[in-house]
Amino acid sequence: MDPRFTARRGQTHRSNLLQADTSAQMKLAPIKASWAPAFAMFLAVGSGMHRAVDLARRVASVRQVRLCGSSSAQTLRAAGALYVVATPIGNLEDISIRAARTLLSADVIVAEDTRHSGKLLEHLKRERLNGRFGHRRTIGASSVVEDEDAALNLAQQCTFVSLNEHNSKLERVEYILQNCIAKGQRVALVSDAGTPLISDPGALLIEQAHLLGVPVVPIPGPCALISALSVAGQPCYEFTFAGFLPKKSTQRLSALENLLKLDSQCVVLYESPFRVRETLAAIQSVVEQLGKPRGVTVARELTKVHEEILRFGSIAECVQHMNGLEGEPRGEFVLVVGPVARQERRADADLLELESDEAVPLHVDAGELLRELIVQGVSVKSSVSVVNALAQRHGKVSKLKNALYGRAQDIKREIEEQRASGIS
Question: Per the UniProt record, which residue ranges are transmembrane (predicted)?
Answer without folding.
Answer: none
